[in-house]
Amino acid sequence: MAIRKELLFAICLCLFSANQSMAQVSKNNKIYNMTSITGKGQPAPKENFTGNVFVTMAVNPDDNLNSTVGKVTFEAKARTNWHTHPHGQILILTAGVGYYQQKGKPIQVIKEGDVVKIPVNVEHWHGASHESAMTHIAIVPSATNGTIWMTPVTDADYNKDHQSSAQPKPLKLTEAAIKNHEELLPNYVSTMQKTDPEFIELFDNFAFDEVIAYGNLDTKTRVLMILGSTIASQALTEYKVMVGGALNVGATAIEIKEVLYQSVPYVGVSKVLDFLHATNEVLLSRGIELPLPGQSTTMPQNRQEKGLALQKEIVGSRIDEMYAQSPPEQLHIQKFLSANCFGDYYTRTGLDIKTRELLTYSMLISLGGAESQVKGHIQANLNVGNDKQTLLTVTTQLLPYIGYPRTLNAISAINEITGKK
Question: Does the keyword Cell inner membrane apply (predicted)?
Fold first, then answer.
């Protein structure tokens, strides 16, 4: 039912002018009749409408144009009676949200820009939605006998579909799921509680009860890992929800920003940029002033040296082997890793090394296709004090967000590196 912009513009040009009443305008020695449909209009006949409805006619029968055209504005919950048009009708929605229903068929939601083409002699009604006013241009291709009015649309018929969607059955959530969800997202109501209540029951009871019950990871760390995972998975919608959740459970704006910055060398800036903008929007909406205090500890003169030192501290002597075994034309990548990945990012304050390594692991298992790097950073996590149980717990917390294949791949890598202990 979407209308082309060119058609809508042409219709607007025909219907609007600067004068309220009929006038004649001379241009190029031709006479044009013009009228205006600005303003609220006149109240519609109560016998044909329910609620407050206002009509402004643009083309009347006495214009001799074989059609009638008018602007009709419905306040919320107002609607026409059931009626038919012996010559059909066209509705062009210009504002708001409304309903349209043909006899025997479900109510359809119509909105600005939609065009409703009503066939000849089809019994129907149309009007505003429960929450929004609605305005449409009504076109009837007849100057006489354009509408046959019938009985009013009862409240029961008007409310039927709305009641079933606006009053869903209470969700069957466990006490733990409710408690954990409220801790993270107090008073948050997902739109899917109306559209997909059964799915929400399944997901929330699993993700916010069974999964959280495994291991002993504090809430803030868990949410920071989910943030890193959603960035790697390019799950922007879930990420924005979780940024608010992270702030709710005590994560600082600096910690959230550091999760973003830490993701750049692993995910790439082209994938991170939208998440950075989204984060700024959330922080500003919470009254947090930007930019945040800087966290960098290196300068161009020492980033290579400090990065390499920290890289060796985290990864171990294997770094020397990687440098020694690198072909000359590829050695620059090893230097980039030391100076950029570790020197520019790992050396920053705002998050400690153990958290940064857990984040890196979370992002790598969420990316998929990075099994070699996953194994390397499992060992790095062990080196900095994140034991096997911590890695299994983080992997479990990410399961609802990354799915079973990547979760099982991660567990296989953990078992391989730790010798299945």
Answer: no
